[in-house]
Amino acid sequence: MEVLKKIFKQTFWQVIGKVVSSISTIIILGIVARNYHESGTGTFSLALTYLSMFFLIGDFGFNAHVLRQKASDWNKLLGVRLVWGLILVIIAIGLLPFWPFGAEEFNTAVIFGSLAILGSGIFITCNLIFQEKLRYDFSVLSSSIGTAVYLLLVLCFSYNKANLSLLVFSQGIGWLFIGISSLFLVRRFEDSIRPVFNLKYARDLVYESWPIAATLTLNVIYFRADSFMIAYFKTSADVGIYNLAYQMFQAVLVLPAFVMNAYYPLMLKSTKGIKIIGLGLLGISFFGTIFTILTAPFFVNLLSGGGFLGTAKSLAILSLGFPAYFLSALFMWLLVSKGKYKQMLFIYTSACVFNLVLNVIYIPHYSFLAASWTSVICEYAILIMQIFILRGILFKWF
After folding, report:
1. Contact 98/50 with Cβ under 8 angstroms?
2. Integer angstrom CA distances of residue 315 from 31, 210, 250, 352
3. Which residues contact residue 318 at a Cβ distance below 8 angstroms, ignoring those fewer than 6 apart?
4. What does the alpha-carbon distance between residue 323 and residue 309 come to, in Å, rounded to a whole number?
5. Sign of the C-alpha dihedral, residues 327, 332, 337, 340?
6. How far is CA 244 from CA 45, 46, 241, 265, 309, in A?
7. Cα(71)–Cα(219) distance, rounded to whole angstroms?
8. How many helices (H) and strands (E) does the chain have?
């Protein structure tokens, strides 16, 4: 019971933070959809999707590995993350001329928004401390500060009919505020917040955690490659229609992530209560699917103000994957806690290849609807592989 109380408390704080960020995201999406329409929304969301891929790659699995080792040198980790973040900024900008879907407006938006990669890296590093100490209220506070800055800047720029690149730049500034405010809050637990780059520490960290990093990278490709394929095979308007649905879908996926953020440090000590967590996630996911299917047209119209034909259908299809997404979040971190890095890498490599093949075949013909169905099918494939690998462990609990 004590475990469930701790999980509930930390999940509660994360939900509060997500409510704040979701309201902000909804307002921003509504502003962009109403003022820049399908094509502008497509460019805006594609730039944010591109940058978000580097946020996740910036994680590199360091936090999960360091928590599992039960010992950390936080200042060295911060130094590694800052250097890695700068490298990712250079890579993100340097790759722009080589993307076939790239356009001047997209490229400019990415350049302006690349500051967000550094802010995200700082925040992720601070989250190691917040997660270890079970103080997600600090994480929520810092993210809410940055979210408020982001929203205010978007409102200001959109009111003056600014270029889309400045709206993406607003996100970068918001992330810098998140990173800086989280550093101030970390000082409650750390005597020093001075980043230290130690080459040996960095090399050992990369060597030991690379399977997690590779899995996260493949997960990023698996999750968001479809947007770029739609941009390549179809139009930016199609991207806007699909990404509006995906943003709404993704807002729900944070719930299992929040639960696992709270449960993972406890899982490392004991797997007591895992059956209740699994059944709870499954029950919530079924409710989420039914609710989304019934209300998708209403919420899409409320958000976009009209147009975006196909977004509601895409959202309803994506929601069919909630049970698989919710359970696979639990099983993925169970694999990490058991040190099954290579098995996890195999699962997501297979899913990524399967996803890319299906999208290449079907997106040219069915656009965003194909991307929606492919996402659902691949997530159930991941769940089946996870269950197969964990069958011995799961049999004892379920």
Report:
1. no
2. 20, 34, 10, 21
3. 245, 246, 249, 372, 375, 376
4. 26
5. positive
6. 8, 11, 6, 34, 11
7. 27
8. 14, 0
DSSP state string for 56-102: HHHHTTHHHHHHHHT---HHHHHHHHHHHHHHHHHHHHHTGGG-TT-
Q: What does the pLDDT look like over 115-150, one tens digit per residue?
A: 899 888 888 888 878 877 777 778 888 888 888 899
Q: Tell me the residue type at 154.
A: V
CA atoms 359, 360, 361, 363: torsion sign: positive
Domain ranges of the chain: 2-397
Cα gap 121→84, rounded to integer Å: 8
Q: What is the C-alpha radius of gyration for the chain, rounded to an integer number of angstroms?
A: 20
Tokens at 316, concatenated: 């309803």
The answer to whether 23 and 42 have CB atoms below 8 angstroms apart is no
Q: At what angle do helices 341-389 and 236-267 cross, to 10 degrees?
A: 90
Kindly report, residue by residue over 192-218, the tens digit of the pLDDT: 677 777 788 777 777 777 776 677 677
Determine the residue type at 322.
Answer: F
pTM surpassing 0.85? Answer: no
